Amino acid sequence: MNNKGVTQSFTILLVDDREENLISLEDMLEMPGRVFLKANSGNDALRLIMKNPDIGLIMLDVQMPDMDGFEVAKILKSNAKTKDISIIFVTAINKEEQYVLKGFEEGAVDYLQKPLDIRITRAKVNVFEHLYFYQRRLRQSLITIEAVNKQMERFLYTVSHDLKSPLAGIAMIVSALEYELDTVSSEELAVKMQLMGKASLHLTQMVDSILDYSKKSFEQQTKELVNVEELVKDTVRLLFPPTHIEIRVQDNLPSLVTRKLKLQQVFQNLISNAIKFNNRREGLIEIGYTDAGAQYRFFVKDNGPGIKDNDEDRIFGLFKTGQAVAQGETSTGIGLNLLKVIVEEQGGRIWAESEEDKGSTFFFDWAK
């Protein structure tokens, strides 16, 4: 039998109280990639099934002492872990319709009459082997689809979070102009209109990147030359940090070819958190990098409240939050977990170093 692309073995359990029947069945069905387990009674069969969760087919003799094939099938079908294993009853007795129906009621999917026809027996087992691997691929596809759905949920959360900052900045400027329009100087108005223009352009570029991301697989997503210093400074401006927080960006941040939206999301979230959770009268945030060989090691450092020792690792878990929460803010604990997913997707890692009441530094590695 040819199962292209399938490297796993197909395990068949043979159950018969006569040893010569087991040997004959194995000899008849033996093929590369098949593994055979043998049991001489119903009880032995049940023990083997519990120890071997990968059994794909059971060839089950109906007439056995102590526990017949019907009883074995009934027990298997009542157990959630074994109810989907295919069972072929092998019998030398009554072929009447009522007797056959009893077998199907107890969970059989097919019947073979002794003495066995070699061609029919092989053909039926081949069909069940094909079905087994098809069902296995189908289950794997469902797992993949579920993972993609979860990734999309995370993506939508990140998008809504990232779009919020420039939108909030635009709303803040518009609100201020409503009250200052009669008194604001032409120079101040020009500055604010310029900020609004940059924020609007930034939003347009983000939406374009999001559309590109949503249409393409990870491998197909566009890579481009990114000036990280320019990206960070634009991000800082569009976060509209309060006047009591100083943000210092290291000179000569590198340029690299990468997925710009991803890198922007990481910086925007880390800088936004550093602003939001800073409780100092004079806040300071520093952004820089070091060369780590095949990767750049970026950091966002703040002088905020810091993180407790036992929180440094757990904050990157889904729905895990640290102790510091900005006044009036709520934290779902999703954000840092999303950053971890994004960074690891790029082949890097993210971690925090912190001292309570003295500030935190978030590091992440990004491929050159």
From TrEMBL:
Every Histidine kinase domain range: 158-368
Residue span, Response regulatory domain: 11-129
Any GO CC annotation of this UniProt entry: plasma membrane
A GO term, aspect molecular function: histidine phosphotransfer kinase activity
InterPro entries per record: CheY-like_superfamily (IPR011006), HATPase_C_sf (IPR036890), HATPase_dom (IPR003594), His_kinase_dom (IPR005467), HisK_dim/P_dom (IPR003661), HisK_dim/P_sf (IPR036097), Sig_transdc_His_kin-like_C (IPR004358), Sig_transdc_resp-reg_receiver (IPR001789)
Pfam families, alphabetized: HATPase_c (PF02518), HisKA (PF00512), Response_reg (PF00072)
SMART domains: HATPase_c, HisKA, REC
Catalytic activity: ATP + protein L-histidine = ADP + protein N-phospho-L-histidine
Tree of life domain: Bacteria
This enzyme's EC code(s): 2.7.13.3
Modified residues (4-aspartylphosphate): D61
Membrane spanning residue stretches: none
Keywords for the protein's UniProt record, in alphabetical order: Kinase, Phosphoprotein, Transferase
Top-level EC class: transferase
PANTHER family on file: OSMOSENSING HISTIDINE PROTEIN KINASE SLN1 (PTHR43047:SF72), TWO-COMPONENT HISTIDINE PROTEIN KINASE (PTHR43047)
Name recorded for this polypeptide: histidine kinase
Organism field: Taibaiella chishuiensis
